[in-house]
Amino acid sequence: MTDTAERSQERNGAAPEPIGRVVIRFAGDSGDGMQLTGDRFTSASALFGNDLSTLPEFPAEIRAPAGTVHGVSSFQVHISDHDITTPGDAPNVLVAMNPAALRADLGRLEPHGLLILNVDAFTEREFDKAGYRQNPLTDGTLAGYRVVEVPMTSLTMGAVLPLGVKGRDAERSKNFFALGLVSWLYSRPTEPTLAWIDQRFTGLVRQSNEAAFHAGYHFGETTELFDHPYQVSPAKLPPGEYTNITGNTALAWGLVAAGQLAKLPVFLGSYPITPASDILHELSKHKHFGIRTLQAEDEIAAAGMALGAAFSGHLGVTTTSGPGVALKSETTSLAISLELPMLIVDIQRGGPSTGLPTKTEAADLNIAMFGRHGEAPLPIVAAYSPAHCFHAAIEAARIALKYRTPVILLSDGYLANGSEPWCLPDVDGLPDISVPFATELNHVDEDGQSHFWPYLRDPDTLARPWAIPGTPGLMHRIGGLEKRDGSGNIDYTPENHEHMVHLRADKIARIANDLPPLEIHGDADAELCVLGWGSTWAAIDAAVQRTRRTGRKVAWVHLTHLSPLPKDLGDILRRFRRVLVPELNLGQLCRIVRAEYLVDATPVTKVQGLPFTAAELETVIEEALS
Amino acid sequence: MSDTTVQLTTKKDWMSDQEVRWCPGCGDYGIMQAVQQLMPDLGIRPENTVFVSGIGCSSRFPYYMNTYGMHSIHGRAPAIATGVAVARPDLDVWVVTGDGDALSIGGNHLIHALRRNVNLTILLFNNRIYGLTKGQYSPTSEVGKVTKSTPFGSLDMPFNPLSVAIGAEATFVARTHDLDRKHMMKVFKAAHEHRGASFVEIFQNCNVFNDGAFDDITRREVRDEMMIDLEHGQPIRFGKDGHKGVMMRSDGAIEIVEVDDVGEDALLVHDARREDPSLAFALARLSHDDHSATPFGVFRDVDRGDYGTLVSHQVAQASERKGPGDLAALLRSNSTWTVS
Question: In which region does residue B173 sit, left (phi positive, over 0), alpha (psi from -120 to 50) or beta (all else)?
């Protein structure tokens, strides 16, 4: 393999041209294997040492009618020789496997961007399916782009037919041809991809994928369609051991870690739902950590099982997305009343209802904050990057266990499926989040009799004792009916209910004392502050950096804890003349901070199923500054 | 906890200090008495016992037991109890539910707990009415039932709880009634001894909103002629001096016969252990109303691995195969690279 790379440089007579960064978008039909192609390109780039960020996009249909625009599946990857956080705004390169992919994604390509087309798929029939009335290759549609036409299907068949592959199977490897070609163009090492093919496939499929990959790679170096390859050097990231990680994997591993750090077995009750199912899949693999996973009959049962497990002394977790959060609301309210620890993980997607199952949105803040009956506050933690999902899961578990409360952990489709290099933490440096179970009677009545009172609280945290079944002498009954503080006996009296409502609210509010001070990024003395939460982190980071490079001042505060809000947030926001709140919703956090702190915060909203681009936020910041 | 011999308990050890708040004359009292009296005989400890209930009159039950208990959400008790039983197969987990709780709002959780064979003892108090909400018809109310919500009579075909349970692949299915403590204790004991999901329908009288619903079957004066007591391995006989019996016809249907007419050898011999559920199903559907002879006792009692134990085995096997979980190794389980 190394041979190939060396030869390619010789033949071209010049070393690859170094570039700092490139954004490549692979687009094709749902059945074309574009997610796999993007994922493999990403892996090779990660192992090569680039910084990177990815944005997979795929339709909700498993196999939408072939060749149609709504069946297009894309994978965008941004690789760089320096620290980056976003998957890039406009791709520099678009690889389109058919006319539908071209039609769906051409608008995203930067002006003069490189367009690599599988011309074999550019037929009258395919134009028709994609909704092109004329041939886009000849009607001027592509004016202003650098177009490279490659007959990928026929070249792939030429490479694999001699191996004995038959009929349509021969075409199947064309995504590996595309991967080989782009790997050559950006001087990717070939070993990781070939090793992966070797491990993943067997027999004729392995041989044909290898052959197609080589054919694509050689096509790049031997034809004169491209002047020369490019090189994106490894990024100068902080020293450490890295792995490339998606948000869902990081979140699942964070739950594994939380169980270890809490010294508790993890119990996951879950019902399949996009884009959260991968967490169920991942945790199901790790039973040797003592993890129990149960695919429940529905979202409600999944939450109920997690709560039952929590009552029994496990770290109870349920994972879902928007519609599932609505169904779990009843159980979450019970968990608030029972004051038991539990995690509800919401991988947000476009709503309402089924909405955009495979697209991202962050519009579940309202339901997380308010979506329960009665006065039912709970803590909310939001992850801000794929790798941060690991730490956010541990933090959510820490709060749940310490304060005996359900916690909602918010991620979203963009974080869930997007990936980035993650500098692995020192496992020994992770926090101990274990809490003791109750083992003793805790109350003596007037007659000198000792009892166990399930609602006698820790004076600081207001957490009640967690006495699990199997503990002699501490038998007790809890339920959804209002109970007397202390004894836990049913009590409907007016004074007691008011006391309990305030107490439950106070318990959650006090968690603010347990949060680290907020960090103000950028210029603390700026007039403008950007307030973000969740996955907007990447785009805000890039936009703030770009603005500051022009010599303008801007500050940025990013929230990981949305309930309770950090104690210092109000004072910080009041320091700035203007506050912008970018959100992938219609201003849900913005409304909360306006109500909470009486600051004149301005919402910046986007609800297209896509993350903000850095350019969009840069423009908004520019406008606010001028 | 380390003692292997279980200390003996008395009925009093199982009674909580809470005031019981069911209506005077409610059938629930008798059921509670039977459970509390039975517990010492089961050789189990209150601290290892959990009662989970949903919402409804019967669902107050956990408050009155001196065990661990949760009064949870309408219909959700089987799901929550599944969490308890799968997390902790060492515990004795009981579910107390009613006809509305288990068969209406919680129907889905009930059937899935049964098919998974979660180690639960499920006591369904069937009074064929919504009591706590003051008298609407329930999914077991008979067609034509006049209630507050059905002033012109209900149009709904009712569920036969045992048919539902057997259809849901239940491994233990039984029926008893609130007027016979001994019978209840016998059935509850068998249900508890069964490893897996045990489903017990209890005919329970709501003396306020549906008084006498089962009188034609369970009243002392008619009991002999109307209750068919099932005994595993015994010919199915009932009535004064056992003059009636149940026979299977050549077409597979079962019917009530006079023993003198057909001879004792023609009677159906009850087989609760039969893997095939068709006999239990036929017996469950022998009576169609509240005025016909109705079978009681254990209809079905077959062994199948219980879910919590199976899950625990998978966890144990994974640990054996892969060794104990190593977090640092997990984080390195995909390709890694080092930046120096």
Answer: beta
The residue-averaged pLDDT of A591-599 equals: 98
Distance from CA of A190 to the nearest CA of B (A): 15
CB contacts, 8 Å: A243 with chain B: 331-332, 334-337
What pLDDT is recorded for position A596?
Answer: 97
Place of tokens 């029926």: B175
Q: Which residue has the tokens 């016998």?
A: B186
Q: Which residue of B has its CA nearest to A284?
A: B315
Q: What is the dihedral of CA A82, A88, A94, A98, to 10 degrees?
A: 140
Summarize the confidence of residues B44-51 as an average pLDDT.
97
Report the complex ipTM: 0.96
Collect all residues of chain A within an 8 Å Cβ-Cβ radius of residue B44: none
Tokens of B290: 């509240």
Cα separation, A236 vs B113, whole angstroms: 54
Residue partners of A503: CB distance under 8 A and separation at least 6:
A462, A485
Count the neighbouring beta carbons within 10 Å of the beta carbon of residue A62.
8
Dist CA A555 CA A270 (whole Å): 40
Rounded distance between C-alpha atoms, residue A131 and residue A299, angstroms? 39
Nearest to A297 among B108, B314, B340 (CB): B108
Q: 3-state DSSP call for residue A28?
A: strand
A4 has pLDDT over 50: no
Q: Which residues in chain A are closer than 8 Å to B117, comparing Cβ atoms? A: none
DSSP of A367-433, one letter per residue? HHHH-SSSS----EEE--STTHHHHHHHHHHHHHHHHT-EEEEEEEHHHHH-EEEEE---GGGSPP-
Q: Distance (Å, rounded) from C-alpha A556 to C-alpha A548? A: 11
Report how far residue B175's alpha carbon sits from residue A622's, in angstroms, rounded to the nearest whole number. Answer: 75
> Which pairing describes strands B198-203 and B227-230: parallel, antiparallel, or unpaired?
unpaired
* B106-150 pLDDT, tens digit each: 999 999 999 999 999 999 999 999 999 999 999 999 999 999 999
User: CA–CA separation, B129 vs B131, rounded Å?
Assistant: 6
Residue B209 has pLDDT above 50, yes or no: yes
Q: Pick the closest to residue A288 from A254, A322, A259, A321 (CA basis).
A: A259
What is the pLDDT at residue A61? 82
Nearest by CB to residue A242, choosing from B319, B323, B337, is B337
CA–CA separation, A425 and A196 (whole Å): 26
Nearest to B71 among A47, A309, A480 (CB): A480
Contact A56, A109 (CB under 8 A): no
Report how many Cβ contacts below 8 Å link chain A to chain B: 212
Question: CB distance from A330 to chain B under 8 Å?
Answer: yes
Residue A476 pLDDT > 60: yes
- Predicted pLDDT at B4: 56
Per residue in A150-201, pLDDT tens? 999 999 999 999 999 887 888 999 999 999 999 999 999 999 999 999 999 9
From A427's Cα to the closest Cα of chain B, the distance in A is: 6
Read off the DSSP letter of residue A307. Answer: H
Among the partner-chain residues A249, A286, A307, the one whose CB lies closest to the CB of B83 is A307
Q: What is the pTM assigned to this prediction?
A: 0.93
Number of H helices, E strands in chain A: 20, 25
CB atoms within 10 A of CB A588: 23
